[in-house]
């Protein structure tokens, strides 16, 4: 397999490419790309089969959410060494009243 290729792009451009897939839904899988990729927003191109065309995954805020290319999984994590597969967390609810103290 070939090493992944990282391409930096503007945050707003990547979000527009993701369309309705952004923001991700709580509970969805989310892959955090490795810090040594030095990529916050852009694309990660992986090559699952040697000699075959690569697959481009959009990266936003150093994460790969579910998108047209598919759902991030362990197979994608294996193609991006150092990445971590997790789950989109629910936003923290805002309390109706401030805490006393």
UniProtKB/TrEMBL annotation:
This is Uncharacterized protein. It comes from Streptomyces asoensis. The lineage of its organism: Bacteria, Bacillati, Actinomycetota, Actinomycetes, Kitasatosporales.
